[in-house]
Amino acid sequence: MIAKGADLTATMDRLCLEVEALAPEVTCSVLSVDRDGFLHPLSAPGLPAEFSAALDGLMIGPNVGSFGSAAYLRKPVVVTDIACDPRWADFREAALLLGFRACWSTPIYGELDRVIGTFALYCRQPRTPSEEEKAIVEASTHLCSIALERHERVLERERRASIDLLTGLGNRSAFGTALSLLPCDKPGTWALLILDLDNLKVVNDGFGHHAGDLLIQAAARRTEECAAPNRVFRIGGDEIALILRTPEALHDLDGFAARLLACLTQPLDCNGHSVVPKATIGGAIFDTGDRSPETVRQNADFALYHAKETGRGGFVRYWPGIDTRIIHRIAAIRDVDAALRDHRVEAHYQPIVRLDTREIVAMEALCRLRMANGGLLAAAAFCEATADIHVASELTQRMLEIVASDMRHWRERSIPLEHIGINVSLADFHGGQLDTQIASVLDGHDLPLEHLVIEVTESAYPALRDKALLDAIGALRQKGLRVAIDDFGTGDGLLMPLLTMPVDMIKIDQVLVDHLAPDGAGAAVIGGLLHTARELDIPVVAEGVESEAQAACLAQLGCRLGQGYFYSQPLDYEAATNLLLSPRNATVSIGVGGPGL
Asked: With 60 as the cut, is the pLDDT of residue 593 above it?
């Protein structure tokens, strides 16, 4: 049975029965001893179940019957009279009621000479074992040792197959098993959280994979400590799953997630570098209508996806309808992916002009997708796709290459264009490669960095608080790159980016321009911004200028630069080239040193 890999309990039962058949005067028992020194009944077909159950979980010791004493002393213990032996004081009554007067127990050894069990023979007469019984014990303990060791190796293989070796947490396989066993008969009895480490790639790239491993280990340890006694699993390179069943966590899922994020974001020493673990969490509770645990898993994934795309570093709980929005976003990503593959991404250019002379002083490059029917999609139609890090990175890479190529062609035609603004998304910053992308593309076209301004929406500015990212952008700014705040005035903290972030230019959002009226609130707000910008020596561009009245009002307030359909719609390369070559701009020097900037 051992050689064929039969079940351990069945094997030990068979051994006990064979022993009792050879020596009818004895009753056989086998106990295992775990690594912490606790006893566990393994086989005793001739003993009542309640007697064996009473021994489960006992700690071995010098006065724990024959069985616990033998394991503790690491030698055979022969008790010839249970009625008067002090080692049986706590178990004497139960044994005597069953008619047993003697018990002889022998330790079972495993690898490294560790006691892994005890083999005992009970006798109804107060006596010592015969020579034949001693021989049976010797043979049986040897067989028990082989069987127990084999069983431990099987368990260890199973454990390793279900354990993530880096963190010690359950792995994806163990998570799948645990998920499949969850009850689905009562809503609200369990919940699932999926945690994604936001800055693992940045740490790996910046400090090496060993630092990344330390980050994963710390995140796993902190998650497990915060979530205990709920179960925690590592299900991917940077993903951790939690199955929550405690009433406290289920009653306040948002509060639990907030505490977990707070535990995670304590600074960590990674090979001498101070790293703050950053994470985003999506979660779902098993609810009415959920068909299976896998449905809850999918809901939690939807919530995580939404959390990562709309604002990393927080928690989003699944709500009906979130999957529809994500499906739309996935469709947008698919459309952008196809456009990238088919080379249907184009750059269109909208001029930035001086309000007094209407001379072009700069351009903003706007991304457009050429449809299969020849039509154009503006960025607003596929902006959801740019929330995905990989899509955003590829789209930005393509736009940088197009813009750099167009700038090179304009230079070769002696058009003195030196400054183009290009939009970057929040996901570009999370990707951690924006600085190298910009430097590589412009260097490849032999263009200095001062020819480019990256435009960052005000809502994306929190991403720039990451020190590693700030340092990378700072290094590029020292070489000439400039950073503009796009859509300025629509965020909650109107002036905070000017105080805390690298800012070289402000682009006032069209929403404020639309509210312009002489002596109105819009004029007062824009006037205040212009005054602040002048004090900080930061150029300002008013976006969305669509009428002569708006242009006049802005000029009166002291704004020098404008952009909008009043001057020109976005133009493709050929049309933009013709505009730049028009007589009106023949003498204009466009760029960092040009008029207006």
From this structure: no
